[in-house]
TrEMBL record:
Source domain of life: Bacteria
Residue ranges occupied by any ABC transporter domain in the UniProt entry: 2-235
Coiled coil: none
Family, similarity comment: Belongs to the ABC transporter superfamily.
GO molecular function: ATP binding; ATP hydrolysis activity
Pfam families xrefs: ABC_tran
Record-linked InterPro entries: AAA+_ATPase, ABC_transporter-like_ATP-bd, P-loop_NTPase
Name of protein: ABC-type transporter ATP-binding protein EcsA
Keywords annotated in UniProt: ATP-binding, Nucleotide-binding, Transport
Organism: Rubripirellula reticaptiva
Amino acid sequence: MIHVHDLRKLYDDYLAVDGVSFSLHPGQICGLVGPNGAGKTTTMRCLAGLIRATAGSIEIAGGRICDSSTQRDSIALKRQLAYVPDDPPLFDDLTVQQHLDFIGRIYGVTDHLAKANSLLSQFDLQNKRDAGATTLSRGMRQKLAVACAYLYDPSVLLLDEPLTGLDPPGIRTLLQSIRDRAASGATIIISSHLLAMIEDVCTHLLVMQNGKAKYFGESADLRSQFPEAATLEAAYFAATSDHSSYAPLPGLSAIDPLNSHHQVTSQSTGVYS
Ligand SMILES: Nc1ncnc2c1ncn2[C@@H]1O[C@H](COP(=O)(O)OP(=O)(O)OP(=O)(O)O)[C@@H](O)[C@H]1O
């Protein structure tokens, strides 16, 4: 569902993402973690097609998210993914209900009103139905953005710091909804600094540092590499410590999905402008 091979992103002469590769399949939930400036948002934005990768390939739902040969992004492909940034850009002039109506219409969601009602109820936004976006709290904005993303049932969800600003019931609802979406076949990447919060929900982890993938694999395997680490947070500190005895294999990690699950062919490796 998501295959990323040797992704690189240069901002001028600064290499923000440096040769990141990983693959995820339907039903998998990947926690994207790493220190500030590690390259998490840049990676997400490349996957979402919002910024052009400098090199490497990104395949989502069987198609390339960007194709350097045509310089065109596939609209059909983008219908299959949703990216929710950490500070969701809502429309100032629209109410909560109007956001959902708008998304429902442009994505051609059948029965979008009923779905919108259900999402408003799920995220406890019913009493804000007629509120303008500018009057919403930080957490409400986050919930509305997630509801808009869920409305068209994308098969790939990219959630950048989605827990920021949510209250404890909101966090619980969101994490359960992520589990439910994955159980229905979605592939989900969730970036977060709240390791204890995402620990139970993630099947996989991508640990980034200085633009590189320090680890990619099943969550349980990261813990098993650091048996002395009682929590995911402790394993994270061990994996990102300069003194860590953990040495990532060339190009990737001990659990290399490109070798164990899906071989990316040289044909699928493109270089973007
Ligand atoms: N538009 C840009 N132009 C130049 N440099 C950028 C730009 N966007 C990000 N960077 C740099 O790229 C690096 C990675 O940034 P990115 O936002 O991807 O990190 P992050 O892992 O998401 O960090 P955080 O956890 O703080 O959100 C940082 O050094 C940042 O300063």
